[in-house]
Amino acid sequence: MRLFLLLLTLLVSLPALAQEPPQESHVQVRLLANADAAVPGQTVTLGVQQLIVPGWHTYWRNPGDSGEAMNVKWALPSGYQPTDLLWPAPRRVPYGPLMNFGYTDEAVMLTDLAIPANAPIGQTLALRANVNVLVCDEICIPETQAIALDLPIRASSSPANAELFAGAARKLPQIIDWATNTEIDANEVRVRVTLPSYAADIGKAASDMEFFPLEWGYIENASDQRATFEPSTGTLTLRQQRASGRDIAAIESAGYVLTDGEQAWQFAGPIKNAPAASIGAMAQSAPDAVSLDTPLLLMLLFAFLGGMILNLMPCVFPVLSMKALHLVALPQGERGHASRAGVFYALGVVAMFLVLGAVLLALRGAGEQLGWGFQLQNPATVALLAWLLFTVGLNLIGAFDLRIAFGGEMLLAGRHHPLVAAFLTGVLATLVATPCSAPFMATAIGAALTQSPAIALLIFAFVGLGLAAPFVVLCCSPALQKILPRPGAWMETFRQLLAFPMFASVIWLVWVLAQQGGPGAVAWALTGMLGLGLAIWLFDRQPVTRARRMLAMAAGGLVMLATLSTLAFIVPRDAVSVEDPARTDNARAFTPDALETALKGNTPVFVNMTASWCITCLVNERVALDTPAVHDLFAAKNLTYLKGDWTNRDPAITAYLQSFRRSGVPLYVLYPARQADGQRPPAMVLPQILSLDTLAAALEPAK
Amino acid sequence: MRFAFALLLAGVLAFAGAAPLTAHASPVIGQPAPEFSAKDTGGNTRSLSTYKGKVVVLEWTNHECPYVKKHYDSGNMQKIQQQAADQGVIWLRIISSAPGKQGHLSGVDADRVARDANAVATATLIDETGEVGKLYGAKTTPGMVVIGADGNVAYAGAIDDKPTSDQADIATAKNYVKTVLDDLHAGRPVSVAETQSYGCGIKYGE
Question: How far apart, in whole angstroms, are the C-alpha atoms of residue A379 and residue A571?
């Protein structure tokens, strides 16, 4: 009886025991096949499906800052060997200040299993595996689950779980062989992917992109990722803060998964150390150009001063002078009106600077690798500016009397309100100043570009205010106006004299054009100038007839349009300047590869980032770098001299500049020689005005 | 014109030169280990500089983490701790879980956990602010840093090369900390200086 009771109790309680879950599980793992049978000689795709409890996550093959990828230990009959697991693209899973790479809700890993040709039909294939999977929320729980699937071995099969496998396949990264490279410097990892035209749409979704290195240790996982797209070259640039630890040499190949959340791509590419082999040592040494900490007021002050100094530049000075002469020529009684004209002139200048600034910011926003000076990186723009200055010069020298430009009363002045004329003069003054503002303001405005758009525009506005200030002061101050010399015949002579700085600026612009497009570009630009001169001559020839003027405008316009369109299509030459650097100063052309190679050695390396249109750069080269004393110094130190020419757009140089938080040239970087212990001290950014003493001091070993 | 040039260059320079440098700390292999101070389980302040001239091991730990349990339940961690003690190495266990977060312990509880596990350590530090952990870029438990007698970071990373929570893997694993301590003891250069640490993410405060 007691035995019976015991048995009864057991019988009642057994089902209850069986129904009780063995333990609370946070992820359920299942094994599935894409067919209902295994066919000898064919391949069946297996899926390992994770169903994850909401709020919990599992890990990708590179789990990020912590965690562990799922491990499947197969127990299969002999002769069966599944391929490595294929992992769907992960998402970033933040974990406090850490960042993990993994999955929420569901993930399916796929693997292919070849069925041997001699598999016995009619039997059952028993697929078994033990899966170790770590599942985390606040805490982490390693779970071990046995997965199993029995597939009949048959001569034919039908698809199974089609929807699940199609979905899983969509989430797998497509392996692509697009051109890619990885640059690593002290601060940043930059991955560049050149999208083929058929995949250019991917670039449009750049802001949704996340990328994941297959290997650990070279990005700071939790830092923000940035992706930008440059449509003209089809380059997608992914960047993230560099992890300050792992030796880059230890990373054998860089492989990445890139995903926009819908599609995913996987690619591998060579790694380049952008500026440093001794990255570990210089991880903390990246200099700031102008950091966010620089007080805004100070930045605005410098912008204002820079704008004021622009007035003295050869392309601007004549304009200001002519305006001053105009004041001189006014009858005493009318000088009172001058103050209002001055204000409108200032408004014109500031408005034009804001337009230029907005254009630049918009282009950068669209992913263009541009810095200030961008306006001179395009041959067509350079030619246009040369023509503009040429025309102004012709006008000043008296070649034509059409008061089209800056003689004071512009052509427009007669027909429009004088204040409108003053405004337009300001606009034109800024346009004419553009070529000069590039070489001299590149650094200052480059700094502005690291700021928010609003602050950047404010800085642009202050450069404009600075440019306008001297004339405005002159207009508003009768006392100053009294100092002006009395009108007389000298004015005409002076005016003609002012044409020559203009022509000098034209020569310089044509020279810049020669660097960009070679002799062909120069020929086209000069041809345009010829057409322009011809048109002006025709236009202004006495007696003036309407027909001749139309003809002049048509002919001149046609010639210019033709040359300009040719120039617009000139493919900028390679970064290496026509002015062969090796000729005079033993410099070699900068490329990330050349720098990497140079840094592998023990000797010091000097990097000079320059551009033909950068006067500061050229002055430095003439007075310091390209002197016998410096040649001897470099030779004595066995220094490798690398010169990067930013005359034309060059993303590699722009990226290098940005790694030092600059967006303009010049930039001088010295990598000291390795010390006795094999370490290379941090790279040094040298001042923008170089001297022999500076260079010699920098090359002395640190005490 | 010359004057104008000079003025302009000066202006440009002043603009560019007005830049303060930024710096952020993160230890680098072969570079001096950053100094820190933290309270131990008894409430006494321990500073790294106290142990100048000695090899120091930092072990980030979380008693409930399965990866930590793997090494304590198997006796693997205690074994390497004992070797370190025999070599005169300082061993600091560090708990960087923030108060209210999983793994955080009071000094008394931390002592009890260490005693129950038969841990062999110079001290256990309660790093409630996560300051020490973040200073060393510690991400997981277990997470190991070895500082050489010269005060430079000799090793940072995992305890061994089997990133699992399975005790059975210990038998075939290469214990990096043991390798580093052996190298340092023999005066050899460290053969493996950096690996990816594995385990549970450290539960830092927000």
Answer: 9
Question: Does this complex have an ipTM over 0.90?
Answer: no
DSSP secondary structure string, A549-611? HHHHHHHHHHHHHHHHHHHHTPPPPPSS-SS-HHHHH--EE--HHHHHHHHHSSS-EEEEEE-
Of B15, B27, B137, the CB nearest to A444: B15
Residues of A in contact with B29 (CB under 8 A): 245, 247, 280
Using the structure block, give the residue that is written with the tokens 């060997």: A81
Q: How far apart are alpha carbons A658 and A653 in whole angstroms?
A: 8
Rounded CA gap, A659 and A661, in Å? 5
Question: Radius of gyration over alpha carbons of chain B, in Å?
Answer: 21
CB contact under 8 A, A309 and B165: no
Distance from CA of A342 to the nearest CA of B (A): 24
Give every CB contact of residue A677 below 8 A, 6+ residues apart in sequence. none
pLDDT at residue A625, rounded to an integer: 82
Contact (CB, 8 A) for A473 and A324: no
The string of DSSP codes covering chain B is -HHHHHHHHHHHHHHHH-----------TTSBPPP-EEEBTTS-EEEGGGGTTS-EEEEE--TT-HHHHHHHHTTHHHHHHHHHHHTT-EEEEEE-PPTTSTT---HHHHHHHHHHTT---SEEEE-TT-HHHHHTT--EESEEEEE-TTSBEEEEE-SBS--SS-GGGGGG--BHHHHHHHHHHHTPPPS--B----BEEP----
Whether the predicted pLDDT of B199 surpasses 60: yes
Give the closest of A100, A134, A302 to B11, CB-based. A302
Q: Are A688 and B23 in contact (CB < 8 Å)?
A: no
Does A663 have pLDDT greater than 80? no
User: Alpha-carbon distance A363 to B10, whole Å?
Assistant: 30
Q: Do A280 and B17 touch (CB under 8 A)?
A: no
Does residue A660 or residue B157 have the better pLDDT?
Answer: B157
- CB atoms inside a 10 Å sphere around CB B110: 21
Q: Is B86 on the interface with A (CB under 8 A)?
A: no
Angle A335-A341-A346 from CA coordinates, rounded to 5°: 135
Question: For strand B200-201 and strand B140-141, is the pairing parallel, antiparallel, or unpaired?
Answer: antiparallel
Provide the 3-class DSSP secondary structure of residue A391: helix
* Mean pLDDT, residues A615-638: 80
For residues A410 and A425, what is the distance between their CA atoms, to the nearest angstrom?
8
Q: Which amino acid is at A211?
A: F
